Amino acid sequence: MRQVDERRPSIGGAGADGRFVLASATVLMALAGAFFLVPLLVLAAVPLAVLVYRNGYRAGTVTAIVTLVVVALAQQPLLAGLPATISDAALQAYALATMISLVTMGLIGMVIGGAWREGASWTEAFWLGAAAALIPFTLVWAGARLLYDVDLVTAAFQRWAEMVRGLVAEAARLGLTPAEVDMLEEAVAQTEAGFALVRPLVPGFAAVGAIVASFIDTSLAGWMLARLGHPVPAMPPFAGWRFPRPLAVVWVAAEAALLLQSAGRLAGLPAVENALMVLSMLFALQGAAVAWHWLRGRRIAAALKVVLLVAVYWRFPYVLIWTGVLDAFLDFRRLTAGGGAGGAPAP
User: Fold this and answer.
1) What percent of the chain has pLDDT over 90?
2) Which of 92, 211, 288, 328 has the fewest Cβ atoms within 10 angstroms?
3) pTM of the model
4) What is the pLDDT at residue 76?
5) 3 within a domain of the structure (yes/no)
């Protein structure tokens, strides 16, 4: 394991090593994400990861705790100023969801920066970050289920719907027309009906979200550290991405089980659909990597390649998915002229 060089170059700002700049960026992004733009909450893990890599776990832990305290303090006057039509239970659920999101963001940043600090590869940091994104809510959900027999996902959605109805009632009191109120209430009712259908797929959505969030944070943190002169591991070239063959076997088995469910020969299993959701995304990426490899020698602009692959996935997603699954067994990149040793392991 490589030794970490403790002599970090400065990025300016208050403090010789720029830790104040990184800590402030973490707090400000978390505040903006908690109250205005949710994507900024995901990006708040990026400066935190850089801070942990450059300055260690103590600086990262202090910054994460300060972020929690600042957001909690800023949240109090906001919640106090909401209409009385919103129940205390709904407000408490909102506050809890915000705190869980902040803890998740902090874990992602701490894990990614700490993994690189300990000598991990880009791929290892990415998967550790994805695992960290799932840990806080999974633990809270399991605790509520085991101790109180409460499905936290359903309860949180019910509180959200209650909060929205309270806001609609307040808007009606302030002069919203009956037709507009009916339209908003119908939208809430349709959302509740849709949630009942997708509730079994929440684990799959959570896993996909964790993978996407970790990929964004790992990529941006690596880019930022590279710009600052740190020799962090680079992301594997996209054209060589290949996922392990056992994952392809699981995908084929899950697809076969889904066909049996459709034919009425197998009881419905939410785990099958959740596994397909996650693995289909991964093998669509692998299929796109194969296509990128084939297009690499053509005189096509990179932006046009991206548009082409997005269009193929949009219209014919199973073309890319099956290409990725078959590539796990056949390694299509060996079939091209000068294909070399095939694809490299994917993140």
Assistant:
1) 40
2) 92
3) 0.83
4) 80
5) no
Regarding whether 221 and 85 lie in a shared domain, the answer is yes
Q: Find out whether 292 and 310 touch, Cβ atoms under 8 Å.
A: no
Q: How far is CA 192 from the centre of its chain?
A: 24
Within 13 A of 75's CA, how many CA atoms are on the CB side? 21
Does 305 fall in a domain? yes
Nearest to 29 by CA among 105, 104, 91: 105
Distance CA 292, CA 153 (A): 39
For strands 241-242 and 344-345, give the pairing: parallel
Q: Is the confidence at residue 14, as pLDDT, over 50?
A: no
The span from the CA of 29 to the CA of 337, in Å, is 47
Residue 328: count other Cβ atoms within 10 Å of its Cβ. Answer: 22
Q: Which domain holds residue 205?
A: 19-227
Count of structural domains within the chain:
2
Instruction: Measure the CA dihedral 113/118/120/124, to 10°.
Output: -60
Residue with tokens 């994917």: 346
Q: How far is CA 130 from the centre of its chain?
A: 7
Specify the DSSP element, H or E, that contains 345: strand 344-345
Compute the distance between CA of residue 200 and CA of residue 7 in angstroms, rounded to an integer: 49
Q: Which of 88-92, 207-211, 325-329 has the weakest average pLDDT?
A: 88-92
Torsion of CA 183, 184, 188, 191, to 10 degrees: 70
